Amino acid sequence: MRNKLLRILPAMAAAAAVAFGMAVSACTTPDGQTENLTDKPLEGQMLADFTEGEPTTVFKSDGWGNGDPFNTYWTADNVAYTDDGAKLTISQPDEPIKVPVYDEDGVQTGETVYEYEGGEMRTYAHYGYGDYEVRMKPAKKVGTTSTFFVCTGNYEAENPVYDDKGNLINGNPWDEIDIEFLGKETTHVQFNYFVNGEGGHEYMYDLGFDASEEFHNYGFRWAEDYITWFVDGEPVYRIDFEEDEPAPSTAGRILMNYWCGTETAYEWMGEYSNPGNEGAEYEWVKTTAQVEWTDANDPNLPDEPDVFDKFQGDWADYEAIEPSFESSVEGLYTVENNGTSANITYTDVEANSYQNVSTNVTEVAADKNWVNLKLTNNGEETSRIRINVVNNEGASEVILNDYGYCGDYLLDKIDGNFAEVEPGETMDIVIKYKGTANSLELMIDSANTSGGPFSGDITISDIKFAKEGEIEDLPETPEAPEDLIINEQPVAVGGSITSNNGPYTAKVEDNALNVSYDSVLGNSYLNVELQSTAVASVNNTFKAKITNNGDAPVNIRVNVQATIASTENTNACNISATMNGETVYTDTQWGGSMFDNIAAGATVEIVIVYDSSKQATNVQFMIDSHKGDEQVHSGNVTISEIAFSDDGTVPEEPVTPPAGENVDLVFNHDDTNYYTIDKDGVAAGEINVTYTAVPGNCYKNVMAQVAELAKGNDTFTITITNNGDSAINARVDVLGTTAITVGENPNNQVCNVSHIATGGADAGYTDTTWGGTSISVGAGESITLTITYDENTERGAVTSILVFLDSHKGDSQTHAGNVTLSGFSFSSSAAGSEE
């Protein structure tokens, strides 16, 4: 868990750096009201009483920095709790701290140097509208800032989704409300706020006293249409937001920090030098705001402390073995064993191949339960290595790892333990295991779930085994579940279940299949399989009920697999599917029907029509493993009333609604001017859209009003032509009148139900939870989307068409493109069925 934290939290902190960077040029001209304020006093329940010691609601930032203009690297040692409260300090390490900087592809682009270490506290939870109050005493020291604020940004999300390189793609908007004290001028306090990254609202308030001399109360009331700041219970500054004026609206963490700046910030805060005992002091924090969500990846959550027992002996007292590593596939890994080390080089390792190098350790590991080894990355790219301590004496291989660590941090564990070794880095790894080991196995870049092919150069050295504590018995290999009886035929359960060393625990009771899991990666595409050739091959419809017994929504992709491939990409022969009678997305290009956001406690009925001419063999359930994220998921589902039939109507080709007459749509954009719309040089009924600097997370679009054209129809067709030199990502929303709640999305206004894509390589995807039909259009490609929409829902009548071009990718990069939109038409599928 901690390894993942170290990747997430630096990014989280980096966004805050931008916030303070913008605050450097503070002004004192108020945007709001300072006189005749009548706001009632702040209220609130105690969130953190620092005079009682370390609270369970707050954690110390530790092990990252925010980047320029911060010259302070956060460490837990700079946060102290005493009977007087919490104190944040600044100290100077013996040597400056150098932190590598990487781009979104994981390539190092430079480094950030911090001359000082500082203290910061953050809440685990995110809070929304309400009253916020702190009792604090800022430091009187030139070059420093003492703060209290609420903040979030595109570095975190309640339900994070990551791309194949581990970059968050659905981050929050950057909203923030600040109280800041400059150590050079503690008779004043600065108020500020940000909305989706836009700041420039600084106001410097004259306190009439020196805040550094004794504790005072400071706070703010955050409402939907105003913010009022308070000092000692009195309202002193208020901003009111007009109906169309942007205001902070996204729940954020409560933060308190004490920092000094780089040269960039000298004009604002002064130059810092000579650290002393001074610091920002805090007695308590109160709030009326409710917890909106808590990040499960936060360190040391009260209900999940990162605590483990380390090896207590001295590894220097143990002798390193002389391994004899071999590649699982001849020539895939080149192995040079040399005494107590082995060098492994490779150039063509595929993701999800799970190939490895291994060495026999039967004799040296006898009566042992700990192993220590060093991994050195001699290459130029990060290597992700899964380490398995194995017993392979039985019918199947059993992985014995209990837990592993490097220094003070636990290693991620999915069967084996994962180590991510940076270029030039050596990791000293310790693993505790159960049972009797006879093989040590390393999957070097082959357990990656995406990317590749991979190359690298790794040295494995100083492998040592030891016994400490009791040796736990070899875990019993779970028995395979009993067969299901489907259509009066026995059907075996297989796939990635525990009896096959997979993460899913499968049990059959009362002819229903129960599946539980606690360590499924969202991009692993593992599955539970019904080996149902006898009944699947003579039918064309699969039916079942799925009950979500867990506490969170579950996402399931179901593939009806066949002997004959449906496309070059898949052997899944699904044609269409429904959930509780409503059509869901079936990907006929890459395979599978998507049953997403099945609510906790809900039971749904699924029906899949498949192409029996492809010789169906089995049914695969990818339970929370097809989400494409790097999160670890857990849950429990029951699949019951499973049956096959030949009830389904199987069309020879996907049904395309009848084409309507082309219409001329008038597209516009908002005042951000990200897109240039041009009708010159293109045919009638077409528009050309060019752009040079569209942020991938701005969600800007070009829009056409279509209320009259859409009325009475249920299909919209559009052709997207990419005139540029690189692929673009487009999303088309058919927008209704009213937003409704769908699954985890409380603001779904999009009426798209399904689509058919023709003319390009990508099949696209219609997201019925968050909305829109998304597709990748390659350079020079022209793709036609035929989108089915539904006006007969609570969203009401269709009002407009929105086209997002490279603005919905969720990244912070800017994108350029040249796109022609054409072939606009509306039609009704009912008209086609009457012919």
From TrEMBL:
It is an enzyme of class 3 (hydrolase). The keyword Hydrolase applies. It holds the Pfam family Glyco_hydro_16. Its EC number is 3.2.1.73. InterPro entries: Beta-glucanase-like, Beta-glucanase/XTH, Beta_glucanase, ConA-like_dom_sf, GH16_AS. Residues 1-26 form the signal peptide. PROSITE patterns: GH16_1, GH16_2, PROKAR_LIPOPROTEIN. Belongs to the glycosyl hydrolase 16 family. This is Beta-glucanase.
